[in-house]
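Ligand: flavin mononucleotide. Inputs:
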Amino acid sequence: MDDIFFQLYKKIAFLGDPEKVHDISLPILEFIYKSYLGKVLHKKIISKKTKQLNIDFDNPLGLAAGFDKNADYLNFISNVGFGYVEVGTLTPKPQAGNPKPRIFRLIKDEAIINHLGFNNKGIDYAINKIKKFNRNIPIGINIGKNAYTQIKDAFRDYEYCLRKSYAIADYITLNISSPNTKGLRQLQSGQNINEFIRSIKGLHDNLKKVYKKHTPLVIKIAPDISIEDIGGIIDLINSYDVDGIICTNTTIDKSSIDESYKNLQGGLSGRPLYKQSNNILKEVCRQMSKDKTVIGVGGVDSPQAAKEKINLGANLIQIYTGLVFKGPGLIESILR
Ligand SMILES: Cc1cc2nc3c(=O)[nH]c(=O)nc-3n(C[C@H](O)[C@H](O)[C@H](O)COP(=O)(O)O)c2cc1C
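Predicted complex:
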């Protein structure tokens, strides 16, 4: 039944501009799930319990960052079967992001190219929304920097967001891998990542003392990262006791997609990202000590694809583009 409804919705929705469709459909779904009807539609969470990041997850499948940047749709996204959700990316100040159009559907490839550039209402707005929400599953908060903040000052933006999120998040993600904020990925390598992690972890350790609670911290990396940079990040994760890693964000590699889309600016997600993302996941799991949590994301659009990420060593999984093309039925089929 769900599937028939989704196929019908998709036929109509896929005629429209992707960003407009997202911005119209989600408030409607949120309204429905917030109403009495929400109790009827609520999907019982399929139990595949796991403890990661010192958090008890009902199941290991989560919604990836970017789908609900501002925590505006928590009633909907927390009640479709996910074991956890990640909101954001959030920046200290609200910002509009890059010029539109900036989301493109690649129907044949079952992929998306997005060039959003952290459009969001700012960390304060999202924190307020989360505070007011009676959560039934863990909520991760994904943080980044404002577009106008120079890379040398980026740590200040992350520190600001970390302070704001610490008490309220179940875990916090440092997104240093979006391809849509100029220069952001420089934070992943060399001296930049060293200084960045050192300063963020200094604050993180202080906040732990202040709040007498540990909010786990994870780093989200790009699928385009070099093997050398992976090694550098894993060394830092171990030495500074960061809790985990998310592999991966979207790719700038467009070699595998239809010629007509190759010149589009932005990050590619969905099926064409799957192999590349898995290669990074495999390398990370090979090097990472087993007490750390590895979250696998990128191109999961079937139970087999999710299983493969677990087989490669992922402890938790996330999806985004698969949900757009396959609908919420994908959540149940993966978990079953
Ligand atoms: C439209 C769109 C917006 C996204 N925005 C963010 C974001 O704000 N922060 C982030 O860390 N990842 C963002 N992502 C990346 C996803 O979280 C995920 O890492 C990536 O899409 C790979 O997973 P998928 O193939 O299942 O989509 C975005 C992805 C898409 C498609």
